[in-house]
Amino acid sequence: MDRMLFGTIALVAGAILTVLLPKNRVRVGVNLVSQAIACVCILSDTIPILFGGPELTGVLLWSFPVERIDLRIGAVGAFFLTFSLPMTFLGSVFATGYLAHDIRGPRHVGMHFALLSMVQLSYVIVYTVQNAFAFLVGWEIAALSAWLLVIWDSRNQKIRFAGFNYLVSTHLSLLFLVAGIMIMHGATNSFQFADFQTFLGQPSNARNIAFVLLMTSFGLKSAFFPFHTWLPRAHSAAPAHVSALMSGVIHKAGLFGMLKFILMVGEPELWMGWYLLAVSAMSAFMGVLYTITQRDIKRLLGYSSTENVGICGIGFGLGILGLATNRPILAALGFGGGILHIINHALFKCLLFYGAGSIYRFTHSIDLEKLGGLLKSMKWTGPLFLLGSLASAALPPFNGFLSEFLLYYGLVQPAPELGLGRMPMMLFAGVLAIVGGLSALSITRAFGLIFLGLPRDPHHVDAKAREHPCMIVPMVLHLIGILAIGLCPMLGLKLIEAPTRVLLSLSRTQPAELMTFVPLPLINSLTLISAIFVGVLVVLLVLRFALLPKSNRRHVTWGCGYTLPNTRMQYSGSSFSAPMVAVFRDLLKFLTREELPQGVFPKDGHYDTHCVDGVEQTMFKLLGNGEQVVGNVMRRLPEDTRFSFAIGLAGLLILVSLVAMK
Amino acid sequence: MSNFLLVFHLAIVFVAPIFVIGIVNRVKSLWAGRRGPRLYQTWFDLVRLLRKTPVYSQVTSWIFPIAPLVILATTITASLLGPIVPGYAPLGFAGDFVAFAYLLGLGKIFLMLSALDTGSAFEGMGASREATYSALAEPVFLLGLGTLAWAGGAHSFQDLVIPNGSWAIDAVLRVTFAGAMFVVLLIEAARVPADDPTTHLELTMVHEVMILDHSGPELAIVQYASAMKMTMLSGIIAAVLNPFSETSYPILAVLFSGAFIVLVAVCVGLIESLIARLRFRALPLFTFAAFLAVLTSLVLVTANQGEFH
Questions:
Q1: Of A327, A479, A543, B209, most Cβ neighbours within 10 A?
Q2: A:432-471 residues touching chain B, CB 8 A cutoff
Q3: In chain A, domain spans
C-alpha cells in the first residue's frame, strides 16, 4: 500500500508540475517521468496480487461527511489497474508524437498531459476505494478529464458539440449510479461497500431495482446499445490517443462496476444473467452492424467498442447464470472469457485507434472513401493495423480468438439446470457467430479501403509526411501483447486466473479454479493449433519463394475490357457493405442527399448516402418534441373518457402491485 | 489403427481435392453429352500453373503474393481438425469446431484482401459478396454444430458426429444438419446455386472474380486450397451421416466416408447441370433456409431434452 500511495503522490505532483513549469518540452518530459514512476510503483503492488499474492488493504481517514475510506485492492481491482496504468502511459507517449506540432508551438500542452495524469488518478481511486462517496469522486474525475481531453481542438464547433454530448451522457450515467447508490444507502445508512454487501446478499425488490439502475449506469459508461449514442461522436472528435484510451481503458470502468456489483451480490438471481446476456448480445450485434456502414475510421472503431463490450457482457451474463444455477464451469468460462476479452479489446482497440491517428497525421483524413494504397507508403502503420484488425475479428492465432473461444465453449456446455434456457444459450452462440462474420466483413472493408488499391482522392497524398516514432512504439508494444496472448494462451489465462477465482468463490460449491475447467491439454491444443498454423505458413512461404517461379513482371489490373480506369472507379466503402446492408436494411437508417443533373445543359450533380444512428435520431426527436408528446397525453386525459379510464386502471394496477410486492 | 486413419485422413485432405473437382467436371460433361477430361486433369492444370511465371498487377502490394499462402496454411490447419471418419480427427480438442470455422475465416479474409489489393472495382465487388454470404453462413455452421454438441453431450468435432441418444431423433438431427451443411458447402466452395464457377461474365461472379488478377503459382494455390475446403466440408457431412464407428468397423467407416465424398461431388455436379444460379438477392434467403433447418433441429433437441445430456 505504501508504494501505491507514493505512486499516487507522484502522479498528482507530476500533474501539478506539468501545468506550472515553463516550456512544453519540459512539461511533457516531467509528466511522462511522473507517470512512469507511478506505473512502476503501483504495478509493483498489483502484479503480485494477480499471481496469487494476498489482497492489500488500507484505511484513509477523511473529514466529514466521509470520515473513513477503506482501501482494498482485490484481484479484480488489481487486474484493471495492471492494464489501465501502463496503457494510459503508452497513450501519453503516443500523444507526444500525435501532438508533436502543438508541443513545438506556443500552445500550453501541459494541461492535456496533466489531464492524462488525472485519468490515471481516477483509476487508482475507482479500482481501490471501498466507499461509495469516494468512488463517485473518482468516477467524476474520470468523466470530467475525459471530456476536457475530448475537446482539445475546442475551436471546432463540431468537436465542442461532441464533447457536450459526451458530458451529458456521462452525467446521465452518473445520475443512475447515484440513484442506485442512494437505494443501497437508504437501506444501510452507510456509504461503505462492506455494508452494501450485507444488504445485497439478501434477495429483495430494492436489490432488483438497484441492479437495473446500476446496469443502466454502467451500460451508459461502457457504451452498451442503446446507450451508445455519445460514443461515435466523441470518438471521432477526440485526438486519437484520447479515443484509444476512452474506448480501451477509461470506459472499462463500467465493466469493472458490473463485476464489483456481482461480487457484492454474492449469489445472483437467474434473471440477472438473462438480462445481461440479452442486453449484451444486442450490443454486440448492433455495434458490429453499425461498423459496416461507417466511413469515418474512428466512428467505425467507436461502434466496434460497443460490439466488444457486448461480447464481454455476454461472458458476464453467462457467468451469472453459472453462479445462479450452481454450475461452476459456466461461471468459469463466462467470467474468464469476459475478463480476458476486456484486456484483449484494450490491446487491439488502442492499437487500431493509434493506427487511425497515425493515418490522420499522414494524410489529414480519416475518411475511408478518400484513402487507399497506404500500405506502400506507411511501412509501419500498415502491417500493425492489419494484425490489430485481425485480432479484433477474433481470428486465430491472435488474442481475440482466445476469449471468444472460451465464450463459445461456455455457451455450448451442457447445463441441465437451465432447462429450456439451453435454447436461448445456443442462439447466443449463433449471435456470436454472426457478429464474427460481420466483423470479418468490417475489418476487410476498413483495411482494404485504407491500405490497399490506390488513393481514391489524390489530394490526400502527402509526399513529405513521415510516421513519427513516438506513435509507432506504443503500437508495436500493443502488438507484442496481442501476439503474446494469442500464441501463448497460458499467459492470458494466468493473467485472468486470480480475478476469475474471486468470482468463482461466490459459487455455493467448494471454490473452484479456472484451470480445472480449461484443462492443460485444451490449452496445449490451442497453442498447438497456432503453432501448426504459423509453422505451415512459414514452410509454405519458404517453399513458394525458394522453389516456384518469382517475377517482377507487372501489368495493369484487369479492367474487364475497360482500358481507361481511374482511381475513383475502385470499389467504395458503401458499395462494399451494400449487400449486407440490404439484408439488414430494416435495422439501419440512411440519409440520402441528392441533386441529380437535370435539363438539357445539366450542372454537376451529387448524390451521397450517409448512415445515421437511428437510436440517436429517435432520442433527439423525443427530446426535442417531448413536451408535445406529454401535452398530447394531457389534453386527451379529460377529453377522452376511455383514455382516462385506461390511464386510471393502469395507475391502479401499478399501485396494487406495489402494495402486493411489499 | 489410428495410423491407418491418419494416412486415410491426410490422403483425403491432400489428394482427394483433385479428384473431387474432376468428378464434378466429369458429371457435368456426361450430363451435357461430352466425354469430359480425365478425373485427375486438375493435377496437370495445377502443375502447369505452378511452373508459370506470375504477372502481378501494378497496384498490388506485398499482401498479394502472401495471401494465397495464408489461405492454404489455414485450410491445411483446419483440415487437421475436421473429421472425415466419425470419431477421428488428427487433432481434436474440446471446442475445436470454433477454431475450424475461424481458421477458414482467416483464409477468407486474406482472399478478400488480395482481391481488394488490385484496386479493381470488379474484384472489390466479389470480395464484398463473399464477405456477405460467408458471414451469413457462419451462424448456420456454428449453431448446427452447437446443436449436435448439445444432443450428443460432446464438445469436440470428432465426438460430435458419434450417434448418441434415441435413433429416430438422432437420424432427424443428422439429416437436417447434413442438409444445412450442404448449403454451407455450396456457398463456401462457390458452387451453383450460390455461385457459378464457369460463368463468363465478371459481374455475376463471386469467387472467380476475386482471383481475376491471380496467375501462375498464386492461382494454383488458391484453386487447390478452395478444392481442399470443399473436400473437407463434404468429409464432415460424410462423417455426420456415417453409420459405422471408427472403433468397431474402421474399414467400413473409411469406405463409407470415401464413397460419400464421391457422392457429394456427384450431387454438386448434378445440381450444376440441372439448375441455374440463384439471383444474388435470393442468396440470403437460401442461407436463411439452412438456418431454419438448424433452428428446427435445435427446437427438436430442446423439446426432447430429457433424452439428452
A1: B209
A2: 432-434, 436-438, 440-441, 443-445, 447-449, 451-454
A3: 1-200, 267-543, 625-661
